[in-house]
Amino acid sequence: LPTPPARLPYVPHLPPMALLGKVTATTFALERPRCVFDGHADASDAVWLAVAFANASGAFRNPQSRAEVPPYKELPTARSYMTLETAAAAYSCSAPSPPVLRVGGDTACREQGRQDPCNGPLPSPGPYRVKFLLMGCRGPKAETLWSEPILLRTALSPSTIDPAPAHPGSALVVISSILASLGAVLATAVLGALGAKVWGSLCHQGLGTDTFIRRSYRTHHIPPALPQPLTPGCGCSPPGLSHSAPQPPAPC
């Protein structure tokens, strides 16, 4: 019988720090285990991640070779698979590796239908459980504990979205009325100030009503009418030009 793998007191878990997309509808992030396999791994060993539905993790059996690793495409039927094959040296204490692993981040798995182990999107919210498994050329050498159940986010169905807008509350109506009243008062004040400014400008330029009161307009100078000359051949004087008593006009 093969030697059972060593049980390591490590529980995989989500990163404790705030992380955008820590859990999505098809993926989740895991904290990378560091210094966990030191003392158990050789240079040629690899570390795998086993992923199983939470209610199927108890029935998972470690593969005895790489050829027996359950692939991603069998998850719907086998209820588990293995992915993220990584050299054991990447998990050592001195390795400058990223602190987070992304499970389900390879969208090309479904499109290409590859036969090799793949890190494809998770098909349902789960929940899932995961564990790390150290494998050598002769089979499993060490394994961690299973994680707590990890539940993915559930996308909202379009049928659950209410297309009608929500009715505003009474407080919102009162605030809106106050803001509308303040806006009207402000607009009136601005228009009044602008009108006064324009009116003052017109008066300053001599176009106001005071100009019509103070300014006098004179028509063109027309000299008084002069006496008309006598008709040639007549020696009589026209009436009204003598300062003496009126005399009868001389006969022409």
* Residue fraction in strands: 15-25%
Give the helix proportion (percent range): 10-25%
Radius of gyration: 52 Å
Mean pLDDT: 77
CATH class of the domain at 6-152: Mainly Beta
What's the N-to-C terminus distance? 172 Å
Structural class: alpha+beta
Q: Identify low-pLDDT runs.
A: 207-217, 229-246
Treating each run of at least 4 consecutive H or I residues as one helix, how many helices? 4
Would you count the extended β strands for me? 7
Side-by-side strand order of the widest sheet? 1-7-6-3-4
Organism: Loxia leucoptera (White-winged crossbill)
Protein name: UPK3B protein
InterPro entries: Uroplakin-3
Description:
The protein has 252 residues and is an alpha+beta fold. It has a domain at 6-152: Immunoglobulins (Immunoglobulin-like, Sandwich). It contains four helices and seven strands. The protein has helices at 75-78, 108-112, 170-204, 209-214; strands spanning 6-7, 28-31, 46-53, 80-87, 100-103, 128-136, 139-143. A five-stranded mixed beta sheet has the order 1-7-6-3-4. Strands 2-5 form a two-stranded antiparallel sheet. Strand 6 (128-136) and strand 7 (139-143) form a beta hairpin. The protein starts with 5 loop residues before the first strand and ends in a 38-residue tail after the last helix. 19% of the residues are buried. The model is unreliable at 207-217 and 229-246 (pLDDT under 50). InterPro entries: Uroplakin-3 (IPR024831). This is UPK3B protein. It comes from Loxia leucoptera (White-winged crossbill).
